[in-house]
Amino acid sequence: MAAAIALLAAGPLGLGDGPVAEAKEAARAKSKSKSKKAKQVECRPQSPQKFLKRRTFVQKGMLVPSKHAKAVRYLAERYGHVETEETRRFNQESAHSQATTVQFMGLPLSIHEKIAPALHCVEKRIRATCSGKPRRYTPRAVGGFRTANSYRGAEISNHLFGIAVDIDPDRNPCCGCVDPWPTSPLCQEKKRTAYERTALTRCWIKAFERYGFDWLGHDDLEDTMHFEFLGNPDRFYKK
Fold first, then answer.
1. Fewest CB atoms within 10 Å of the CB: 87, 129, 156, 183?
2. What number of other Cβ atoms are within 10 A of residue 150's Cβ?
3. What torsion, rounded to 10 degrees, do the Cα atoms 84, 85, 89, 93 define?
C-alpha cells in the first residue's frame, strides 16, 4: 500500500520529479529503516492484566456491565473499534484494518499487528523449552481474527480485536461454549482439571502465559483451545 501511494504521488508511471522524487524516496526509506531498528522486539515476561480477564467481568454466568465496559474501552483504545457504536467512540480506526498475517509454528495466522511481537516471543519460548516428548505438541490448525462475534448478548469476543488465538478446536474443546462443544466426548469425561481435558501440554500453556496471554482453560468456559493477549502490547519493544 505504501509503495502504491508513493507511485501515485510521483506521477504517471512513477516518474514524478526525477532526482528530487528519488531523493525524497531514499530519505523515506532511511527513516523507515531507523524506525524498524528502534522497534526491536525484546521478550520481556509479563502477566495478563487482571481487569481484562473474562472471569473478572463474567461472574456466575452473568456479565458485570461496568467491569466489562472498562475492559472493552481499554481494548478499543489500543487496538481499534470492532464495528460497534460503543467501540467507535474510543477509536475511529478499526481493529481489523490493523490485521497482519504471521507464521506461528509453521502455520499462517491473522492477528492484530500489535500482538505479533508477543506471539513471536511465545514461539521462541516453545521452541526452546517444549521440545521434549512430554512437553511437545504439534498444532494442525490455528485461528485468530474474526469479523463475527462468537458470544451471545453484550459480551465481545477478543477475536474481534485480533488478540485471541485458537489452537486445534478438535483436540482442545470449549466445554462451556454453545453446541456442539458440550456434547464432545472430551467434555463428557470426568476430569479434575482443564489440563486433563486438553491435548495441549502444560509447557505450551505456560509459554503463552509467560508473555501476557490468558488461557481460557482457567475460565468457567473451559475453553482450552483459546489464548488471548491481555498484557501491555508496548512492553515488547526496546526503548
1. 183
2. 16
3. 40
